[in-house]
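User: Show me a protein chain along with its predicted structure.
Assistant: Here is one chain, sequence first, then structure tokens.
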Amino acid sequence: MTPLRIAVAGDGVAAWMAAAALASALGSKRGAVQVISTGTQDAPAEPFGLADTTLPWLSARQIRMPDPGDTQIARAGGSFSFGIALSGWNGPGETWFHPFGSIGAPLGPVAFHQLAQKLRADGEAVRFANFSMAALAAQAGRFQRPGSDPGSVLSTCAAAYHMDLDALAGLYREQAGRAGVGSADGELTRVERTPEGAIDHLATTKGERIDADLFIDATGVAARLAGDAEDDWVDWTTWLPADQVLSARITDTQPPLPFSHAEATPSGWRRFVPLQGGGVLDQVGVSSLADSDELARVVGDAVEIHRARLRSGRRAQAWRHNCLAIGSAATRIDPVAVSNLQLLRSGVDRLLALLPASADAAAERAEYNRRFAAECDNARDYAAAHYALNGRRGEAFWEDRRGAALSDSLAYRLELYAATGRVALYDDEPLEESAWLCLFDECGVRPARVHPMAAGVAAADARRHAERIRAVMIETLRGMPLHAETLAALRSGRN
């Protein structure tokens, strides 16, 4: 087999993540990976801001690529996450929690969320997040790596990272160097194409010609390799209207909490991503409605504000000819609940699974594009639901969002859950069932009737089961270290 030559164009997280993963997977005998800078190191993260929250990276559906370890993350100033707190989406003063991991535990064949409806019908007050180990730990400021023992309640948790994107790019760049990734001499200056539209080669400012079997476009919104043809962009602004992201770094001596916070504002929403020594505050909204000075007032006049434009959507085809777009060159989503970083990671995982064995990659391209479109559209629906199901009143932006038309797929998810209490999950879902359950439940979408199997459970048995779950979780919580203690142990090498 002829070694596969891969050229990656870009400077930020997307480029170095892809390069590190590909070089590690291929090895020197099966391929060579080269990175070509575009000279845009000053804005590697656009339009995602300065930091991002991943969703849990290591799911059963993904290939284990060499991610930075917990110790590296901690030493680079990152922190851990057990979920997202959302404030104001149902009105001022209302807060709910999106935990990472499962909710409760089944009672025999009866799923916990179905049992919850039985408890409510019997007059019990049930809030899903109160039966999430991840949610309880996060709100108590505690963090411990989820366990693999299915008999432990810790196995119901899933963990993610909060990361400064510059720092994360640096970690992947180090990995890429150890894996033998090369760097082109000079910066990208020209893309030469064949008459059919494929990339023939790249040229650099130093006169170097870059030939490859596969070209990876990790150049961000500029899409230097893939291009920006309007007919190749599937626009989502009907459902996700935010077009501006303002970001500012915050310094703080308080230890970071193991969750991010998304707060609805009159013209959009504000997110805080906690890092060691502070964090990043993002303001996401519609530029024509937003108060451009709002974020500066929140963080102080002396703080530099990073501004980026946002147009949520995806490419019709991320992989065309011999060019594959990843990261914001391929898709951009309002980060209210779905991480752009997670979609990037999924794209890299997908490529690892579908690496072409020859120059004829028609089958690999078709499958990649099918799965890419499915995952992105599923992520779009989850993010859009936060707007469509909002409970804010008397504000034009939010009233308009609540009245906007839904995508067919989101409308079906809502219809099915309201009728049966079942969550419609499709192929290539970026979120677990628990995320949809908490969203629907907290936004007031409740099944019209109790599931027949749940209805057959005696009220006393259902109550005792719920009480046992809570008791086990609270006892486990007492023994968990503080998030700050976990980070300190990792930084010092004690963990």
